[in-house]
Predict the 3D structure of the following.
Amino acid sequence: MRLIKSKMSKNKETIVYKGKILAHIFRSGLGSKGTTFFTPPRYTLQLGILTHPKGSKLRDHSHNPKLKYNVDTTQEFLYIEKGRVSVTFYSEDWKKIAQRILKKGDFMLHVSGGHGFEILEDSKMIEIKQGPFPGDKKEKIYKDNDKNTSK
C-alpha cells in the first residue's frame, strides 16, 4: 500500500501522507489571473496570488472585526527571498516523508506534521504563522535535542 503521495502540477506540489496534507509547495513563477486562492476555505491560513494589470483597481474594504475565527492548529507560510533551503517533511509521529529544495521565489504552506530545514546557501526567509506567539517551549515540539539547530 502506498502511503506517501505527491500531487504535482508545473509549479505546485502537495505533500500527502496517509490521506493527510502535510504541505503545499509553490515554485517561483507560479501565475494566476486576477485573484486566485490555492487553499481550501477551511484552512486557518489562506494563501492566494493577486495578479492584475497596471491601472486595475481593487475595491476599498476592511475586514469584519465582528467575525471571530476558531483557530485550532498552527499553519506556517514560508517564502524564500534569497538562497536555497532543504526542507524535510515528517508525519505527526516523526516518520520522514519527503525532502524538497526551495530556492529564491519559492514558497510553501506547512499544514500538518513536522518539518526541518537545512540551509544550503546564505538565505533569507519570510515566515508567517498564527499568533499570538506563546514562546518556543509551548509552541514547538522538537524531534530531538540536537544542539546544532536553532529556532
Confidence is low (pLDDT under 50) at residues 1-5. The first strand starts at residue 4 and ends at 8. The chain has one helix and eleven strands.
